[in-house]
């Protein structure tokens, strides 16, 4: 067997100007002319299938008609009334598998109305106005709600409760709120600091206090929150990443893809971010695609994405897969990793060996990124009375856990599809249920 090359991991593989171009907005906002032309393609269907396919129930024909009428404030309000994180979802949602997939224009012309881009066009148009230009806060109720987790579900729940006049304290373990929006999505999907801008805009509603660097570690903390607040909503997300369970997993250069993406998203200077010359990403979901593409954009010469099943089983969409290939990522299907190969000193990864239908595949690697799924860290829930199903929190349709005044939702909820837009809907529904209980 040929010896593995020496590791080559270093920053500054591309100039600052080249990186700025590479990480620019992947789908820039439509111009007014483009938006008007696209809006005119909509048939404004009665009982529109696109509206049914949207987990948050956005009235798609209504907001597109308002765009066609140049009423962007009305369009944005129609979107944000149903989905307060409509700006993020317009950027990160797999619209090609939701609203756009069932668009009537697909059957007619093979090309759906660009619903996601029209949604972004409308929402972005009002982001420089105060949130109170679209929504007002009800009179204070004197009720207080604690939310644990400031990701999409937690933010949606907080906003809806604040609108109804409740006081909300939003707890999160990280130094910045936003969860997946802030730390987990590709830089080119949330360009221009949009996650923080959206958060700041939502907080203008008032009544929401951030409690950052607060980590849920045990059930006693849940009991304490239930004593101090009128209701508690757990939006914990999926904090544990999967392990390969292979020797060499602790070698230098082997890391979780979610940590890599978070580091990239928070890096003040991309030229200072090191990347391997040869990168292997293990996994077949959106996180794997984001990690692989961004490695390539940072200047990696070779990026391989290896998935143990076939393309039809990938959780990443066809569009995501095409995006990876367009950016120079090589995809390999039906191969599973069997060994992480060390360099000559035995301290750093130098390659990965796979086995599959095509026999053995060995790839040199300076960096190996694991994107093999995430799961809920359920240890803080032990003794809380919260039931689990399939490793996630068991709740009813409105997020009730069975423990009085304790709700849960988002990715930590059993039965979800781990979509940002579904997490938003969970937060909305829980807020409505909490409000009804408190009222």
How do the helices and strands line up, and which of them pair or pack?
Layout lengths: L8 E2 L5 H7 L9 H8 L9 H5 L6 H9 L3 H11 L3 H7 L11 H6 L5 H10 L19 E5 L3 H12 L3 E6 L7 H4 L10 H10 L4 E5 L6 H10 L2 E4 L5 E2 L12 E3 H10 L8 E2 L1 E5 L3 H13 L3 E6 L10 H9 L3 E4 L1 E8 L6 E8 L2 E6 L2 E4 L3 E2 L12 E2 L2 E2 L12 E3 L11 H19 L1
Parallel strand pairs: 2-3, 2-5, 3-4, 5-19, 7-15, 9-10, 9-15, 10-11
Antiparallel strand pairs: 1-8, 6-16, 12-13, 13-14, 17-18
Give an overview of the whole structure.
With 439 residues, the chain is α/β, with parallel strands linked by helices. It folds into 3 domains: 32-131, Orthogonal Bundle (Fumarate Reductase Iron-sulfur Protein, Chain B, domain 2); 138-239 and 376-438, 3-Layer(bba) Sandwich (FAD/NAD(P)-binding domain); 242-373, FAD/NAD(P)-binding domain. The protein is built from 16 helices and 19 strands. The protein has helices spanning 16-22, 32-39, 49-53, 60-68, 72-82, 86-92, 104-109, 115-124, 152-163, 180-183, 194-203, 219-228, 257-266, 286-298, 318-326, 420-438, and strands at 9-10, 144-148, 167-172, 208-212, 231-234, 240-241, 254-256, 275-276, 278-282, 302-307, 330-333, 335-342, 349-356, 359-364, 367-370, 374-375, 388-389, 392-393, 406-408. The strands form 6 sheets. The chain has a 5-stranded parallel sheet with strand order 4-3-2-5-19, with helices on both faces. It has a 5-stranded parallel sheet with strand order 7-15-9-10-11. Strand 2 (144-148), helix 9 (152-163) and strand 3 form a beta-alpha-beta unit. Helix 14 (286-298) runs parallel beside helix 15 (318-326). The longest helix is centred in the C-terminal third of the chain and has 19 residues, at 420-438. 48% of the residues are buried.
């Amino acid at each position: 067997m040929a010896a593995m090359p020496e590791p080559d991991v270093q920053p500054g593989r591309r100039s600052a100007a080249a990186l700025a171009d590479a990480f620019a907005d992947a789908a820039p906002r439509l111009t007014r002319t483009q938006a008007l032309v696209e809006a005119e393609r909509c048939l404004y269907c009665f009982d529109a299938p696109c509206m049914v396919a949207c987990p948050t129930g956005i009235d798609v024909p209504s907001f597109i008609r308002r765009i066609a009428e140049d009423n962007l404030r009305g369009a944005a309000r129609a979107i944000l009334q149903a989905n307060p994180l409509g700006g993020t979802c317009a950027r990160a949602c797999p619209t090609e598998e939701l609203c756009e997939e069932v668009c009537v224009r697909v059957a007619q012309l093979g090309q759906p109305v660009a619903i996601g881009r029209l949604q972004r066009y409308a929402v972005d148009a009002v982001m420089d106005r105060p949130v109170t230009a679209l929504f007002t806060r009800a009179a204070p109720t004197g009720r207080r709600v604690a939310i644990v987790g400031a990701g999409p579900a937690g933010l949606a729940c907080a906003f809806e409760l604040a609108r109804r006049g409740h006081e909300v304290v939003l707890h999160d373990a990280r130094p910045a709120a936003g969860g997946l929006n802030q730390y987990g999505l590709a830089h080119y999907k949330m360009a221009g600091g949009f996650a923080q801008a959206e958060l700041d805009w939502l907080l203008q509603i008032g009544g929401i206090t951030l409690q950052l660097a607060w980590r849920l570690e045990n059930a006693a903390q849940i009991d304490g929150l239930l004593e101090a607040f009128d209701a508690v909503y757990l939006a914990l997300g999926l904090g544990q990443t999967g392990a390969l369970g292979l020797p060499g997993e602790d070698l230098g250069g082997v890391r979780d893809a979610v940590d890599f993406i978070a580091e990239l998203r928070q890096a003040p200077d991309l030229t200072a971010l090191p990347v391997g010359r040869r990168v292997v990403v293990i996994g077949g979901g959106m996180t794997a695609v984001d990690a692989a593409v961004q490695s390539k954009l940072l200047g990696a010469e070779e990026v391989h994405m290896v998935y143990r099943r076939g393309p039809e089983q990938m959780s990443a969409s066809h569009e995501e897969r095409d995006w990876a290939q367009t950016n120079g990522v090589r995809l390999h299907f039906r191969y599973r990793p069997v060994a992480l190969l060390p360099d000559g000193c035995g301290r750093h990864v130098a390659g990965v060996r796979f086995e599959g239908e095509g026999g053995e595949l060995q790839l040199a690697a300076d960096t190996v990124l694991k994107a093999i799924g995430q799961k809920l860290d359920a240890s803080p829930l032990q003794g809380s009375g919260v039931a689990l199903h399939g490793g996630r929190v068991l709740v009813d349709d409105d997020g009730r856990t069975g423990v009085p005044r304790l709700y849960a939702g988002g990715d930590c909820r059993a039965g979800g599809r781990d979509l940002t837009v579904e997490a938003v809907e969970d937060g909305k529904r829980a807020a409505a249920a909490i409000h009804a209980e408190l009222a």
